[in-house]
Amino acid sequence: MIYEEVEANPIEIKVEEAPFSQFDYDEVVSKPRFFTPPLQYQRNLFVRDIINSHMEGTGKKIRKLAVLGCGSLSLERFLMSSLGDMGIERVLSVDIDEHELAKGIKLLKIEHIPLADATRFARSVLLNIQPDLFIVSTPNHEYNEAFGLPNGHFRHGDHKFEFSRQEFRNWLFKIVGEFTPTYGYLVKFVGKVPGFDRLGGATQFGIIHKKRARLSGVVRHECSKVYRKVGETVVRNSLFSLEREKVKQAFRLWLQENKLLEENLIQSSIGNFWRVDMKEIVRNIELPTKLKNNLNKRSMVDMLRFICRGRVINEVYNGEFCLNIPHTVTKDELIEITSTTN
């Protein structure tokens, strides 16, 4: 789990507040400066304003901030003087790039990892961390025209993909759609060059937020339907933790009732494993029929991968989502993990 792994290997550093004139991430000395103020400054300012707006709208302080893909701590340095006023007590900064970490160690910047991984990661954040506010930033590929880049060329050599505006909206719609009515989203653009307003902006942000349950009108004492509707809303908005616990219990029961026999191992080029049919897990889940029927098998597989700390893997077999247990993982090990509090 991300917090456990990071806290087990902390890196303590001292950083200084970023100056306004700091070079933009998208601009270096050898290139012309397109944006005033720099695009990185505009992005950081946008994120700060979104956080402040969220706190004003909900009336709650944000105590924890996670910057996934922190780079050289640009956002953290920008927010340093505001952290106290925001009520932020803890900042978690993570980056996969050792060179960036070495500089001083960028919000999730999804374009630096393969699209499939970015999709799984975003879904995992919403499924397992369940943040009140999740901000995703990525380049607007259409805006590369403003930089004079040839059609189809990416803005940076290490980008694995870049979304057009419609592609980004489609991506968000597909991911967030799995978590309705708990989450909603909107798209905003930052960084504009005169003459290219038709392209939106250089950076596109997906602002994913938890919806607040609202009641309208007066609830009459004799009206039972309103009470039922309120109950359904409460269940939907607090269902993640209940589902995760029930899925964990069901998987543990499956492990206790089934032997992982050598003759049942499936041979493959990437290693041998036991395949778990998720239908068998669903049968073990103790939930009302209506809630059980609404369970998403892909979400269940992701839950178990998270709960088991990556020791199990997912697979699509004959059009169905399955859970695979590598032959190097023991049943006792998985039972122990699923018996602890996650």
TrEMBL record:
Matches recorded under Gene3D superfamilies: Vaccinia Virus protein VP39
Keywords recorded for this protein, A-Z: Magnesium, Metal-binding, Methyltransferase, RNA-binding, RNA-mediated gene silencing, S-adenosyl-L-methionine, Transferase
EC number(s) given by UniProt: 2.1.1.386
BP GO terms, sorted: piRNA processing; RNA methylation; siRNA processing
Record flagged with keyword NADP: no
Cofactor: Mg(2+)
Any one Gene Ontology cellular component term annotated for this protein: cytoplasm
InterPro entries assigned: Hen1 (IPR026610), SAM-dependent_MTases_sf (IPR029063)
The keyword S-adenosyl-L-methionine is assigned to this record: yes
Catalytic activity: small RNA 3'-end nucleotide + S-adenosyl-L-methionine = small RNA 3'-end 2'-O-methylnucleotide + S-adenosyl-L-homocysteine + H(+)
Molecular-function GO terms, alphabetical: metal ion binding; RNA binding; small RNA 2'-O-methyltransferase activity
Protein family according to the UniProt entry: Belongs to the methyltransferase superfamily. HEN1 family.
Protein known as: Small RNA 2'-O-methyltransferase
Organism: Dictyocaulus viviparus
